[in-house]
Write a structure and sequence with these properties.
322 residues; alpha/beta; inorganic pyrophosphatase (n-terminal core); Diaminopimelate Epimerase, Chain A, domain 1; 2 domains; 6-stranded mixed sheet; 5-stranded parallel sheet; 39% helix; globular; binds manganese (II) ion
């Protein structure tokens, strides 16, 4: 059942013993959402925890580590935040697939896998929806709530520069700044400072980049051997898939990353001419209009993954008549 912000807030007010779920390969938005919602519910006197996510890295781990559910915690109410579908639940959370009481999300491909579903595709960051729910619950914004909310809205909008940035995104950011949040320092940590390993991976992406469809499609490859040689971590790859789209003329930037287990991850970043989510859906994935992802199992290999990703992108071009 689809619900409004008010109905979601009412359901949360009635319930207790909350467990909050984040998605696979957690980003700033899902960790920001879970961190802010957990702290907001605690401010109401509720018991609330975030389910530990084994994919969590130091980049965003600091937002959730103090909120981790203790072993054996039996939840009374399960909420997922920024999780597009049950196949995006991380290892250890699969058992909750049919047991999510409230889905809070902003992915247009979300099928509504919860008992209650609040999915708002127009929200730049899912944290904007969390902000509205906390407001409906009457939770006052404090610096400790503002920090995760700001991390979510800023990272999901590329620091307020992607096309998903709205008036509401800025309203949420303004409310966060009003609590005294040091956005300059946070932005520097989130968007400016990079490890040297990251710079080397960007160089490798540039070297591997190939162009198709009259320069409208760019494909970059991050091979496991290169990642290992450079010593790049998951955090060094955060948002790196935005790079191919920065090349002038590119409308669909495809980044293929070889995982440790041999599977290949595809990230698509697009301009207004290409629906990234429709490209990824053809490959069993999903996402947003301008950002999507899909995975190829081990055994497919980089070359075949590239061929399939290109074919899906060309098909999306044919469908749109461009
Ligand atoms: Mn998000």
């Amino acid at each position: 059942m689809n619900v409004t912000v008010q109905q979601a807030a009412d359901a949360l007010r009635e319930a207790g013993d909350f467990l909050i779920l984040t998605h696979k390969r957690p980003d700033g938005d899902t960790t920001g959402c879970a961190g802010a919602l957990c702290r907001g519910l605690r401010a109401l006197g509720k018991t609330a925890f975030v389910l530990p996510n084994p994919d969590l890295t130091p980049r965003y781990g600091w937002l959730l580590e103090p909120l981790a559910a203790p072993e054996g915690f039996v939840p009374g109410y399960v909420v997922s935040t920024d999780v597009a579908d049950t196949n995006m639940l991380p290892a250890g959370a699969e058992g909750y697939a049919g047991k999510v009481d409230l889905v809070i999300d902003h992915h247009r491909s979300n099928p509504g896998f919860g008992r209650l579903n609040l999915v708002r595709p127009e929200a730049g960051g899912c944290c904007e929806v969390i902000y509205d729910i906390l407001a409906a619950l009457g939770v006052a914004l404090t610096p400790e709530l503002a920090e995760p909310l700001y991390v979510g809205v800023s990272t999901d909008t590329g620091c307020f520069k992607f096309s998903n940035t709205t008036v509401h995104t800025h309203e949420v950011a303004a409310a966060c700044l009003a609590t005294g949040l040091d956005c300059g320092e946070l932005n520097r940590r989130l968007f400016e400072v990079k490890r040297w390993q990251r710079f080397q991976m960007e160089r490798i992406m540039v070297e591997t980049m190939e162009f198709y469809h009259d320069g409208c499609i760019a494909v970059a490859q991050l091979r496991r051997a290169d990642l290992d040689r450079v010593g790049a971590t998951t955090d060094d790859l955060d948002s790196i898939s935005g790079l191919p789209r920065q090349v002038e003329g590119v409308q669909a930037g495809l980044t293929l990353t070889e995982n440790k287990d041999g599977s290949v991850r595809l990230s698509v970043r697009s301009t207004k001419e290409v629906d990234a989510s429709s490209v990824c859906r053809k490959l069993g994935g999903g996402g947003h209009l301008r950002a999507g992802g899909a995975s190829f199992p081990a055994g497919v290999g980089m070359e075949e993954a590239k061929r399939r990703a290109l074919a899906a992108t060309e098909e999306a071009y044919r469908e749109s008549g461009l």
